[in-house]
């Protein structure tokens, strides 16, 4: 190996190695900014200098199989990203010979806007803040700058390795909207955390839920042991980990509250965690009034460690706050009557969507971008012109980027469609894997769960993990678990049986829920149906919620698609379920009724014991009852005395 | 036959009633609310201070310079001084005789000669080494005393009387040689010693007074001090008015370990501390500060503008903290928090100063919020867009914070206690040793310990009193066994604390006092005490009424009938 020379670059903005500041590339060489690296956002570059390439290897990525080489800094040997050698899918060929550099920023914000095929609009806010040197177990860190102190304290105090909390309202429609930009969650609140193993782990989990409940004004403290589960296959950490080290040092706890309503009182503390709050930057758009007037709303906090070098000897703690909403400009216009009928229904502008404006970028963010994913077809006009247009993940997709740092003042982004009428697109491209879950059966006694999982891939068998938590008041029967593929039942002994691994935790009344986790290989282009039966439990009267006739919510099932490199999360809706509801005035009725019966019984017994019942004395009787004359005489005597007598009826 | 049946009937009736009468207590017992017996009388005795009283003994060792033989009788000096001190120590301004007996301050004086000469270099002649104006600040004197035990070194001096108060439990009194006699020394000491403790005694009496008579006094210093807690959280916040003007940063970690750590280590005997810090941006004020402009014709407009400033008035200071927007609360702990805020105003509101009620700048541009924390406003030069407070720049800020922290913890300024002393006959110059790096002298520390002991004991007693009142007033309250145990333990700790006080073992007394307050509060705030209704009596009667009424009617009727019959039979017999 000869001498390595370092090249120095000139350009509007130079990208350097995060550790040693060696020049790597310039903004002019960026092809796409919309890549997901191992730890966060990554850019695709045309050309990169001062790097060394590693050996080539095959990797499965979200977009298919690729041959790649890791690249590292020629000066400090830190791994920076990878180089695409070969892409096996035609649509991904443009990446060949190009470089991915992963981004390392202490604080950044971005807003992604994506028009969806049914005229709705997805807006996705993302804020990321990193904290040096606090990611290890037992690390003490007391001095905070941009990283929110409240979250840092919680993570340290309750020794959490990773923490994920999501508040969701509404349902993400996979069939219409495709996969969401961040990991989605079911309706309600979902919390999962990897906690460092120690003797106080369960106490820590309890305190963690309580602290978060206080911080976000949510009923997270109701995630008690009856709602807490330890998934075995799902919810792998997002941060760097290897399995043996992970299971030795940490444990997973997860819980969800499907019935929780999400409202501005949860949003306000969430905004307060941002370094610029809602005063500047894209967060100034966050108007609770408009956010909750949407078809779907999901707000999350993810705290996870991220690597700083290739060996992961140094880690940072990152907090990623995301907020996704699906807004329906068509409906909002109808309600407001802003435009004439049928014209410009799906037009939108930022000001119209949020009734607010971005006045300037957050001065604390190193980067502040607005990304608009441009629809592939249609006749439209985007105002103003983008600072830069880059390639998206597919060939035809383009992304317009507006750098708020560069042109900060009053960005008024708008999009106008030149069409006389909005037509709903019936030809939607379905995502590869999606699912439906139903409850079956009728009556107050029994029921069943049925899940249809669709694999739309024409030639790939896709392995997934199906994860479902059923509350203890639905008693599952594992022997009734049946699997059908395209409507044909498959025997568990047959080699086509799709369930390769099954983990089942039976419920214990009033102390833990039932958990099903199954590793399923979905055959190509198929519908796999799982069904299982259960009994409904008659609850104690104190166990019913204040609105028992509304029914009980069963949390969403989670489907994790496993690919060799990354995992897609795909979560399904929460279901409402009715249980037999008693009459709640019953306890007092029962007491009163029982007492009355007892009193009646006592009264008659007492009377039987203390009274004598005698037939009336007649002449005929006298003759017949010769033998009882003595006694009768006695009665007559007494009657003569003028006192009425009750005489014990003695056995004769 | 009739006699027989009557008998059996009566027998049945009686057996029914016997069963019912025997069963009644059982029913009463099983449906009763569980109430562990609390030591009400003992608590009552404590709250009226019949069991014990607080005693804060002090011992003074007088080291009197002597040349071999005593120039006057030390013994006479100590005995007459002790008598004098005892009477003046227990003089109360409020004239409350009750308090006089509750809080007592016995004092003991002992004396020993102090051999302070040494051989002169020239030969075997002995000389007074410390005569004249010799430097006493660096004089090393052995100090092995505990809290409550003080050394006073007395030696002659050429011209005037000087008192040197040192940072440990020592003071050096120099008396002019022409006044070197027993009378003068006694008079001076008799005035000096009580003045060391006057403030402290006042506070302690105040505590006792407030708790015994439920009266609140408007003493600003007692309102400033936070309630005792075994752990306090200290949060330093750098509030930046507008980060688009300038980004600020500070070297707080280094500043805390340099300037604050020694103080906290010293006071950790009394309470522990956790420290954290944060930087909050966009920390806007909820109100617009007032603007002061100048219209001086001698200088141009730009200079006039440069002189203009914004200011806060004493009336606006209570609204300074924007607790809704500034993330000051802790999510993980329920211990009391002390907040210290360094506020950097936004450009359009700077420079920002604080005016006092007379419209004059305050000295430090800082203020204290009682029982909450302290605020310092800083107007750094932020023209280049970023500003970093270095550890040197934080020094004056941290000094203010430390003095505010002293106030919040209840450390009484020892200097202020002594300054008004001016003897009519003898003028005494008072010198203080330069403050130690821990920012607290042993005199002040002892004071703090004694004050916290008194406060904890009084608070524990009043908590127990409230608990017993509550329990006796609400008969439906469940009292479990562990509450009883906590209360008994708290009383035991109180007793131990008072005994240790009497023995002048203040460290031990503080430990016991801490235990007493923690146990009494854990009993008072126990979650089982909150759920008042287990089964209130009204419910009990409501539920059993449908059973008892229909059962009792035939029984009663049978009894009445039987009685009537007996009477009738008696009449017949007669």
Please explain how this structure is put together.
The complex is a heterodimer of chains A (652) and B (574). Helix content of chain A is 16%, strand content 37%. Chain A has 652 residues and is α+β, with helices and mostly antiparallel strands. Chain A folds into 3 domains: 5-14 and 108-421, no CATH class; 23-105, Peptide methionine sulfoxide reductase (Metal Binding Protein, Guanine Nucleotide Exchange Factor, Chain A, Beta Complex); 433-577, Sandwich (Immunoglobulin-like). In chain A, helix 1 runs antiparallel to helix 3. The longest helix of chain A is centred in the last third of the chain and has 25 residues, at 586-610. Chain A is elongated. With 574 residues, chain B is an alpha/beta fold. Chain B has a 6-stranded mixed β-sheet, with helices on one face. The longest helix of chain B is centred in the C-terminal third of the chain and has 37 residues, at 537-573. Chains A and B meet through helix 1, helix 3, helix 9 and helix 11 of A and helix 1, strand 12 and helix 15 of B. Chain B: The chain crosses the membrane at residues 12-28, 541-560. Chain B: It holds the Pfam family PIG-S. Chain B: Its main location: endoplasmic reticulum. Chain B: It is a multi-pass membrane protein.
Round the Cα radius of gyration of chain A to an integer and report it: 35 Å
Detail the poorly predicted runs of chain A: 564-574, 631-652
Please report the number of helical segments of chain B. Answer: 15
Helix content of chain B: 40-55%
Let me know the number of strands of chain B: 20
Q: What's the story with the biggest beta sheet of chain A?
A: 10 strands, mixed
Return the structural class of chain B: alpha/beta
Strand content of chain A: 35-45%
Mass-distribution shape of chain A: elongated
Distance between the termini of chain A: 126 Å
Return the average pLDDT of chain A rounded to an integer. 78
Largest interface: A-B, 51 and 45 residues
Number of helices of chain A: 11
| Beta-strand residue fraction of chain B | 15-25%
Poorly predicted ranges of chain B? 118-127, 129-133
Radius of gyration of chain B: 35 Å
Structural class of chain A: alpha+beta
How many discrete structural domains of chain A?
Answer: 3
